[in-house]
TrEMBL record:
Entry keyword Membrane: yes
Transmembrane region(s): 57-79, 91-110, 117-135, 147-166
The protein, known as: Uncharacterized protein
UniProt key word Membrane: yes
Source organism, top-level taxon: Bacteria
Keyword field: Membrane, Transmembrane, Transmembrane helix
Length: 181
């Protein structure tokens, strides 16, 4: 019987036998990393986790809810009351609400401590619900069906996520230089 080569390494992911030293440092069967994972955890893992949110803050979600509510009410509802030439009824109101939520996401990303991507998104979703019904009820000339309001609200929530990510990137500054191997 043939004996297993003592210099072979068993892949921890798939169990395949590999030569002791491969050129790429990966399993020939599945492509998993074969080398020591400690160096990956220390250097690369910190760099990969730099942009990951680690928890959900209810306090910052409430702050985001207040900020997004005030911005939306002021610009979509209040500004047309002050400037009579503006009319944000119906679809025009949703077109204005999307950049308002984006700016709110950027502001919250910049001022919140740590990484907070989800809090502004949840707040924008909660603000989008009454905004959709308010604009649907107030439409007279520029009308849209309900599903279009829902789609535009979801686009606004997506833009809030993009804005929050951009605000976090501005807050964190440039990434640290990659360590030379």
């Amino acid at each position: 019987m043939a004996s297993k080569n003592d210099s072979s390494i068993v892949c921890p992911s798939c169990g395949a036998n590999n030569a002791s030293v491969t050129a790429s440092g990966r399993c020939v069967a599945c492509g998993a990393r074969m080398g020591s994972l400690q160096s990956l955890r220390d250097v690369d893992l910190d760099r990969h986790r730099r942009y990951q949110q680690e928890g959900f803050s209810l306090l910052w979600c409430l702050i985001a809810l207040v900020l997004q509510s005030v911005l939306t009410a002021a610009l979509v509802g209040g500004l047309p009351m002050i400037v009579q030439q503006l009319d944000f009824e119906g679809s025009n109101g949703m077109i204005v609400a999307i950049p308002v939520w984006f700016v709110g996401g950027v502001l919250l990303g910049m001022i919140s401590p740590g990484k907070t991507f989800l809090e502004p998104v949840v707040a924008s979703f909660l603000v989008a619900i009454p905004t959709v019904f308010y604009l649907l009820q107030s439409q007279t000339v520029r009308t849209m069906p309900l599903f279009m309001y829902v789609i535009m609200a979801l686009i606004g929530v997506l833009f809030t996520l993009i804005g929050a990510y951009l605000g976090e990137r501005i807050q964190m500054g440039p990434p640290p230089a990659k360590a030379s191997d």
